[in-house]
Design brief:
Layout (H helix, E strand, L loop, with lengths): L3 H27 L3 E6 L10 H4 L8 H24 L4 E6 L18 E4 L3 E4 L2 E4 L9 E7 L18 E6 L2 E3 L1 H10 L5 E7 H10 L4 E9 L2 E4 L2 H20 L12 E7 L2 H7 L6 E2 L4 E6 L7 H4 L9
Parallel strand pairs: 1-2, 1-6, 2-3, 6-9, 9-10
Antiparallel strand pairs: 4-5, 7-8, 7-12, 10-11, 12-14, 13-14
Helix pairs in contact: 3-6
Bound molecules: zinc ion.
The site of zinc ion has 4 residues, from loops.
């Protein structure tokens, strides 16, 4: 027979253990977790045709454009809800597709924890910059709706920034928009957590950033693809986001922070585009099609060429 004190201690431990766990879980859930969701649309679920993705092009029916924007808005809502449910305490949700302007504002969920950026360049403290609010207070970068870089085989609408760019490298590594945006966030040491897109975008991510969680929602070539229906896509994306947040908490996530100074090269499709870009200050022309620049900060990843970054001049 056990002495009474042992018994009561055991009983106490037995009753206290779940309380400790619950307290720990509660602490984990209330811990500040601010995420930046930078949304493109080409890789978003349900966008299966060029007409849906680039709905501003000539001849696209109004209904196709509106339907695509509705699908996109629904996906943004579902992902935001998933991130909050998985423990995010604050979200910045940015629409970057074609510079922004695709979300149907009145159909977005309103929540005091969500800040919407309807365009990817905006004002912060009275100054224009790319991705306002992306700074050292952000705990993770998510890139949903993204697409593979230019010339990727088996990819839906692969491109990098615009149709003049054939290849973009940072310190010798060829990257697309996924790498460019992750590099920009690397300036503030923001861990890169998640990509949602077609299979090719997810593969590109896994090869270049093996720690990042990816959710493939479609598969296709050039101007047409097939994929998950909205409900299944939202579920898969929610699962990916939760996994990414778990990975962040487990210390598995890191920023993409190329060594400085960064050497950037850009190969243009045409000589004319290369000649024009070579006129910018500090840009070296390596050959007919290729430019090179050296920059001293990850935040200048495209600023040397496009002016997009921090401290942008007034529009
Ligand atoms: Zn894009």
């Amino acid at each position: 027979m056990l002495p009474d004190s042992t018994l009561s201690r055991r009983r106490l431990l037995r009753t206290a253990a779940p309380l400790v766990l619950t307290a720990r879980k509660a602490a984990a859930q209330t811990r500040k977790l601010k995420l930046f969701l930078h949304w493109d649309m080409d890789g978003s679920n349900g966008i299966f045709t060029r007409e849906q993705a680039w709905y501003w092009e000539n001849g696209v029916p109004e209904a196709t454009a509106l339907g695509a924007r509705q699908l996109f808005t629904d996906s943004v809502n579902a992902a935001s809800q998933a991130a909050l449910k998985a423990g995010a305490t604050e979200l910045i949700v940015c629409d970057t597709h074609h510079g922004g302007g695709n979300l149907i504002r009145e159909k977005l969920i309103t929540d005091p924890r969500i800040t919407y950026l309807y365009r990817s360049v905006g004002l912060e403290n009275g100054k224009r910059r790319w991705m306002p609010g992306l700074d050292q207070t952000v705990d993770g970068l998510l890139l949903p709706g993204h697409h593979a870089k230019t010339f990727t085989p088996g990819a839906f609408l692969p491109h990098t920034w615009n149709f003049e760019w054939a290849d973009f490298t940072i310190n010798g590594q060829s990257v697309g928009e996924i790498g460019i945006e992750a590099c920009y966030a690397g300036h503030w040491n923001i861990p890169f957590l998640f990509v949602q897109g077609d299979e090719a975008a997810c593969l590109e991510t896994r090869i270049q950033f093996p720690w990042v969680v990816t959710t493939a929602v479609k598969r296709g070539t050039t101007e047409f693809c097939t994929g998950l229906d909205p409900q299944a896509a939202h579920q898969a994306t929610a699962k990916g986001i939760a996994e990414a947040i778990e990975g962040l908490r487990a210390g598995k996530m890191r920023p993409y922070k190329p060594k400085l100074p960064m050497t950037i090269t850009l190969r243009m499709r045409t000589m004319d585009a290369a000649a024009k870009a070579a006129q910018r200050p500090g840009v070296l022309r390596l050959d007919d099609h290729t430019l090179e620049a050296r920059v001293g900060s990850q935040a200048e990843v495209v600023k040397w060429l496009l002016g997009t970054g921090l401290d942008m001049p007034p529009a």
